[in-house]
Amino acid sequence: MNAPPAPPHDYLARLNAEQRAAVETLDGPLLVLAGAGTGKTRVLTTRFAHLLMTGRAQPHQVLSVTFTNKAAREMRERVGSILQRPVEGLWLGTFHALAARMLRRHAELVGLTSSFTILDTDDQQRLLKQVMDAEGIDLKRWPPNGLMSVIQRWKDRGLTPDRIPVAETSDYANNRAEKLYAAYQARLVTLNACDFGDLPLHITEILRTQPDVLERYHRTFRYILVDEYQDTILVQYLWLRLLAQGHKNICCVGDDDQSIYSWRGAEIENILRFERDFPGAVIVRLEQNYRSTQPILSAASGLIARNEGRLGKTLRSGRKDASGERVRVVSLWDSDEEARMVGGRIEEARRDGQNLSEIAILVRAGFQTRAFEERLITLNIPYRVYGGAKFYERQEIRDAIAYFRALSQPADDLAFERIVNTPKRGLGDTAIAALHRMSRDEQVPLRFAAERLIQTDAIRPRPRAALRELLEGMTRWNAALEKEGHVVVAAQVLEESGYTDMWKNDRSIEAAGRLDNLKELLRAMTDFATLGAFLEHIALVMENDDNSEGAKVGLMTLHAAKGLEFDMVFLPGWEEGLFPSQRSLDEGGAKSLEEERRLAYVGITRARKYCTISHAANRRIYGNWVNSIPSRFLEELPESEIMREGGIKQAPRIPSSVFSAGAPLSSMRRPRVIEAGAWEVDQRPEREKAFSVGTRVFHQKFGYGRVTGVDDDKLEIEFERAGTKRVLDRFVEPA
DNA sequence: AGGTTAGTAATTTTT
DNA sequence: TTACTAACCT
Q: Closest nucleotide to residue A68 (Cα to C1')?
């Protein structure tokens, strides 16, 4: 997986037989079923290189589609190094990026101009709310999110408002969903905007209805490569099928056992049906795994074998050191003890010289990370939570981008609305309402409506002056864009609009970080030639904040872990209701259970050497204790591959294994006692409270710190990791 | 206009 | 438990 790229002459020699078959089968439809850790990326990139080396195609005649920007970036790099020259003019990217690129060429066919804006989820929601409001829908009775998902589903299935079959209709808001969908789409057109779902929808619609456009692409693309095929949604499949009609040279790589995004519209049927969809298709299975030890592979295989709807394949370990420790299954008393167990073992591994960045804790749902975070803070083990608030999602970044969008797209009302009173300019509901009225009456975007509004006396002098100042600023910045370039103007915008001042005057702890983020945003802008190019990047590449210095334990959801690998993996919370998730089961029944099982399979196969699965008999969920039974998946693991620890199931009285090494004694909980199903809460004896300035203290959540101020029972504490906080003295104890 | 408080809802999230 | 939203007060 991580071997250095082969020089061009022997790139085929470095493949095993099955990988070689996948690379050398060039003509006609090909499905590569690539199990976890079987060298999928290598096959894709080598195949790409092979197409060029054999003279089958020029670089620009190959369409390569991935799901993530990360995968696209990786592939671009690896293709470049195999070819030993930079790769330019490639049609290589995510579904969305490629769709956007094509759509910009033909935007007028769906009523947009080539400079259309791509809205994010937040804008989508606000826009939909406005549309529903305008149609007189009771937003309380009919939550906009419900309609959003109905529309999303239609878009995923390639259905435009005029083409919704009876079988796909929705009874949302008394059958008004279709009308609202049409209104929403119309509104998008007037804003010259698209949401994410529109990108594949529009381009598929164009290819479907415009034979000349389709034919042009047939001439261009001789070969098509698709990564993660099991995750395609129907409209993406339709798009691919249209493009593949030309040469029929489509190669899809995927793993039906790792399909975990059905709730996002992905249809596992796309991969299961491949042979029928593309007659004459060849199927190649990659089953030689280079990642995990045999017990880990056997445990994972035994589990996934319980699924019905699968194409079937069995992983074999191709590693020389294939033998290894069995998968551990640990039973614990409660979730606190589980966190302590995991923390303790990580601490132990660290002492043994294990690199922390090779350790990961993978959970089913985001909220589960908190317990582990607290434990790791206490133990002073550095960690990183993946997939949390992303850079682009942060308020300050979104605000700044809204300013830039409003400048580059005068019709972008959503952006204008966001910034018109940010920072606070004294424009309240009344002023905003007047603005909207003007916009509606005059049939112009908000920005132009504002220009007219300040000529009238429809709003009070104070807000009018504020609005005038903003508009004058925007005119000035727009003019400066030509002369000064987008980076200089961006800095100017944030400064002159009062936006940076807003955060400078903010007393909260995050304010400084926000200003740093804004600086980082400006720095990122220097990588782009124009403001437009930057905004396109921002809309499509939802980059994670990437200051990952130092080795850190990874904390993430199972979904976020797909595609990653670690030496040591912890899989906590294997309990009925949590994993498999009750909610998922309620919604999708047996089909969802299979998806949950695939999720479990993905989790286990992330581990190279050590895999520890655990469950707790009692867990705190939303503030109250719930007792839970072990996940059915634990029973499904082949007994010969696992090692059980802890005897909670039989005698749930005393924690049988306590891994408290290095932990402050005070943070340990006494075992609780169950009486007739009810809880007797742990009563800690009242302690003497005697804190004075300078005392070193310990706090469950914030860790160690020093008291810097005392006000009756309230303490001001400077924590080593969490900064200065004011907390009640009963939450801390002397360290 | 803006801050405060009470009430409510609560997976997964590649773009 | 927490985090977000909508009504409510100043």
A: B14
C10 C1' to A501 CA distance, Å: 26
Distance CA A48, CA A60 (A): 11
Domains, chain A, ordered by start:
17-101+202-286 (3.40.50.300), 118-191 (1.10.10.160), 324-386+553-682 (3.40.50.300), 393-537 (1.10.486.10), 696-734 (2.30.30)
**Max intra-chain CA distance, chain A:** 83
- Quickly give A153 CA vs C7 C1' distance in Å: 34
The nucleotide lying nearest A623 (C-alpha to C1') is C1
Which of A280-294, A382-396, A462-476, A526-540 shows the lowest mean pLDDT across its residues? Answer: A382-396
CA atoms within 13 A on the CB side of A381: 32
Of A545, A530, A536, A195, residue with least CA distance to A397: A545
Query: Nearest nucleotide, C1' to the C-alpha of A67?
Result: B14
- Protein CA A583 to sugar C1' B9 (Å): 14
- With a cut of 70, say whether residue A364 has pLDDT above it: yes
Residues of A annotated as catalytic are: 40-41, 227-228, 258, 606
Distance from C-alpha of A573 to C-alpha of A558, rounded to nearest angstrom? 12
Place of tokens 């309990």: A575
pLDDT of A216 strictly over 80: yes
SS (HEC) of A457-473: CCCCHHHHHHHHHHHHH
Neighbours of A620 (CB within 10 A): 13
- The protein footprint on chain C, as nucleotides within 7 A of a CB, is 1-2, 6
Segment A288-317, tens digit of pLDDT: 999 999 999 999 999 999 999 888 888 888
Mean pLDDT of all residues in A647-669 = 34
What whole-number distance in Å separates Cα of residue A153 and Cα of residue A146?
11
Whether cis (ω within 30° of 0) applies to the bond prior to A8 is: no
Other beta carbons less than 10 A from residue A42's beta carbon: 24
Check whether residue A138 has its CB closer than 7 Å to nucleic acid strand C.
no
Residue A326's pLDDT is what?
94
Q: For residue range A171-184, what is the model confidence (pLDDT) as tens digits?
A: 777 778 888 899 99
DSSP-derived 3-state class of residue A213: helix
Which ranges of A142-233 does DSSP label H, i.e. alpha helix?
144-156, 172-175, 177-190, 198-209, 211-220
What is the rounded CA–CA span in Å between residue A642 and residue A296? 9
State whether the Cα torsion A632-A635-A638-A643 is positive or negative.
positive
Bases of strand B lying below 7 A from some protein CB: 1-3, 9-15
Q: How confident is the model at residue A62 (pLDDT cuts 50, 70, 90)?
A: very high
The H helix count followed by the E strand count for chain A is 28, 25
* Cα angle: A538, vertex A539, A541; to 5 degrees: 60
For residue A136, give the amino acid letter.
G
Distance CA A197, CA A151 (A): 9
Which nucleotide is nearest to A582 if distance is taken from CA to C1'? B11
In whole angstroms, what is the distance from residue A7 CA to residue A392 CA? 38
Residues 603-622 of A with CB under 7 A from strand C: 622
Residue A333, both tokens: 């008393």
Residue A240, classed as helix, strand or coil, is helix
- Three-class SS of residue A684? coil
DSSP assignment of A587-651 equals HHHHHHHHHHHHHHHHHHTTEEEEEEEEEEEEEEETTEEEE-PBPHHHHHS-GGGEEEE--TTT-
Using alpha carbons, list the distances in angstroms from residue A136 to A128, A139, A173, A414, A529.
12, 9, 11, 20, 44
Contacts of A163 (CB under 8 A, 6+ apart): none
Q: Which two tokens stand for residue A102?
A: 């094509």
